[in-house]
Amino acid sequence: MNTVKSVRELRAAVAQARAEGKQIAFVPTMGNLHAGHAALVEKAAQRADFVVASIFVNPLQFGPNEDLESYPRTLLADQERLVAAGCHLLFTPDVAEMYPQGTDSQTRVSVTGVSEGLCGASRPGHFEGVATVVSKLFNMVQPDLAIFGQKDFQQLAVIRTLVRDLNMPIQIIGEPTVRAEDGLALSSRNGYLSAEQREVAPVLYRSLQEMAAAIKTGERDYAKLINTAQAQHSAAGFRSDYLEVRESNSLRPATAADRQLVILLAASIGNTRLIDNLAFDLDMPA
Ligand code: PAF
Hints:
The protein has about 290 residues and is α/β, with parallel strands linked by helices. It has helices at about 5-20, 35-45, 75-85, 95-100, 120, 125-140, 155-165, 195-200, 205-215, 220-235, and strands at about 1-5, 25-30, 50-55, 90, 145-150, 170-175, 240-245, 260-270, 270-280. The strands form two sheets. A six-stranded parallel beta sheet has the order 1-4-3-2-5-6, with helices on both faces. A three-stranded antiparallel beta sheet has the order 7-8-9, covered by helices on one side. Helix 6 (about 125-140) packs across helix 7 and helix 9 (about 205-215) runs antiparallel to helix 10 (about 220-235). The longest helix has 16 residues, at about 125-140. The protein is globular, with a radius of gyration of 19 Å. The protein starts with a strand and ends in a 5-residue tail after the last strand. Pantoate (PAF) binds near residues 130 and 134. Pantoate (PAF) binds near residues 133, 134 and 155. This is Pantothenate synthetase. Its EC number is 6.3.2.1. It is found in: Cytoplasm.
């Protein structure tokens, strides 16, 4: 695997792969890679001949009181994981390479609709930062397909909308969330949890499963299910940010008639904010 830091080197390496007739798959990341990222890269290696990954902790998508400075940077371990998963080219730009004119004067990409509410409400500017950096990375790499985790369900919806609305010829693939044995969704932020916090964290996914099971057996009083789950979260020491049932394609609040649903949550424990979701189709057998 070749690691490059400049857009010039990136374009040269991708152009060579293209000249060899290769299909290009792209996996953008912020590093501190875990088995969930490895699954995205493995999927990319199955679907294309040349796999490009990026590691860039994007300042544009962090709020003023968020963990930009402390976000874990683990390049050597990440490179090993990427090689093992089948990555061919790693792009690790610094902030000046990505934003040579500075971040303030950078043209922004703003996706309406699916960016609103949920994480869009609690992290103002976050999805604009994501949409902007992903647009730039797509223009730099020009992949045939790009792979994202479904753990960031709203982010995936934002990126699908962006690609559709800006006519980018890139296929977007969403991959299922990889979980620890006790159900906790893998996340770089799990590393912030103390042993006690890590022990109680599976309550989040457990409650999503219980809510989904109740909805599948006919319960449509979403507010009641949300209250029960939030009581479980707060008993475990979590502060709820949001917990909502939405229609999974449009991300609008779910009605009792909707069949494709996703339950999404964000909750904090100590200084760590975790997100998770569970999507299901009432017309599909479990
Ligand atoms: O999901 C992430 O790691 C980031 O939001 C992404 C898509 C790499 C953009 O910085």
